[in-house]
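Entry:
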Amino acid sequence: MSTLAIATAREVFDLLRDDLVAVEQELGRDAASTVDTITEIAEYLREGGGKRIRPSLLLLSAHLLGYSGFGAIRLGAVVELVHTATLVHDDIIDGADTRRGRPSANTTWGNEKCVLAGDWLYMQAFRVALEERNFRVLDLLIGLTQQMVEGELLQIQKLGKAVSEAEYYDLIYRKTACLFSVSMRLGAVLADATESQEANLGAYGRAVGLAFQIVDDVLDLTATEEVLGKPVASDLREGKATMAVIHSFAHGTAADRRTIRRVLDDCSFDNACRAEIQQILARNGSVEYAMAAADRYAEQARQAIAGFTDSEFKRALLWVPDFVVAREK
């Protein structure tokens, strides 16, 4: 690997500041509908903040290969629209009350309006993407949407079950890492990348996305509600077995498995409290196991871009995996 220094957070922010402002402006335009309710819901979601990591990856991918046109701004908004649409639908499916420390949209507008707003956001993303007049862009977005929907359906089928690690990785690829990978590929497509360059950037996005979701799932079990902006251990309470839980189920005692099984079966902490689960995870080293997996994917991401020419954009991409693994929310 190159000895090129990893950028700092401030350097990455400075590098992308103008582009991200432009993406935010584009999102504001794209989220406007002639139907007031759609505009209100879309604006509420946009104002909720978020890391904008997916548009940032697309921008860095495009700039890494020398592209600086408006298409990167447009498609940066597209991937954020797709991400926002998935959040709306996820909150409805999960019956979530909060999102990023605020009431979820469905608690304010109701499920019926929000599911339709989510559908509108998906279609708006495709309408905006169509302006690129690029079949490869549409092909990537169609494949992405199918993967994400399949992932959500698979997760519903596996609720309350102690899934295997292989099943877990398949789920988090479809639900999270696929969008990271496609964001990187879209930037490469804009820059007329070679097949090999696009594949390497897609591999980078996949690895970063897997690390991101593993850490997200760990934080769901270990962080505080004030930091997360939502109830702690909400995944487990909803019957979702994530990496650390899967590890303890496989490597813990029979009593550990019975306790975990009670929570998964009940989809509640009525018969086993959060503290018991956290003690089981600690006793089996399961959080450390999950974080070690996230570290491995972070390193995979760095290796995937090792062959690209050194630049400030490569330095920024080298910083992203460390940010993803070290974040606290």
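The radius of gyration is 20 Å.
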